[in-house]
Amino acid sequence: MSSFNIGDKIPKDLANASVIDENSNNLKLATFWKEGPALILFIRHFGCFGCTTQMQAIAPRIQEIDALNIRIYLVGNGNPNFIEGFKERFQLYNQPVKIYTDPSLEVYKKARLTRSKLIAYGPTTWYERVIAFSKGYSNVNQGDNGQMGGSLLVDQEGTIKYYYKNKTVANHSDPNTVVEHIHQFALQQKSKNN
Asked: In order of start, what are the domains of the chain with their CATH numbers?
């Protein structure tokens, strides 16, 4: 499965793909960047130990990202009723983050993210599991275990400014790299407006 390149336009099939909020309302992905640039973090599912490490890594940077006028969206793939517990677990109630889900996995497929049972249950994941569990993390199946996540930064015109495909269950984009791309984008916008 190919990836996107920085500078690519979001394909129409991805822009028109639907996600679901916690009240089971459908929303097209393109609405995420309609009002301004958006960072979309695709998590594996709402009970994944890898998603826990991803959230712990990005959480300290949420306010900084928001201050740069970037909207933050999380997309999982479990049942919409899992969103509430995810918000609670990561204390996202008063954070500038919106959470959606796609149990059909269509948005993941159109975002060209990897789905692999071999990765999900292979030796690398077992090693990652042992490390995570030794640190006190748990794993509760709240979505498709074979689906990997990723990150996507999109400007208001639907142009990709950053794209990352998670390679393993516990792999995710480095928050420092994400924020660096956001700062570069903000500087480009500032020079474009002057």
From this structure: 12-193 (3.40.30.10)
Determine contact, residues 82/46, Cβ cutoff 8 Å: yes
pLDDT at 12: 96
Q: What is the mean pLDDT of residues 50-58?
A: 75
Cross-strand pairs, 101: 20, 76
Average pLDDT, the chain: 82
162-178 pLDDT, tens per residue?
A: 998 877 655 667 778 88
pTM: 0.83
170, 135 in Cβ contact below 8 A?
Answer: no
Q: Report the DSSP pairing between strands 71-76 and 97-101.
A: parallel
* CA distance to 45, 163, 166, per residue, from 150 (Å): 12, 7, 5
**Count helices and strands in the chain by DSSP H and E runs:** 9, 7
Hey, how many other C-beta atoms are within 10 angstroms of the C-beta on 107?
A: 23
Question: Of 93, 180, 186, 111, nearest to 151 (Cα)?
Answer: 111
CA distance 162 to 155: 10
Structure tokens at 59: 């959480």
For 78, the token pair is 């479990």
Place of tokens 């954070």: 95
What backbone phi and psi angles, to 5 degrees, belong to 167?
A: -95, -30
- Cα Rg of the chain (Å, integer): 16
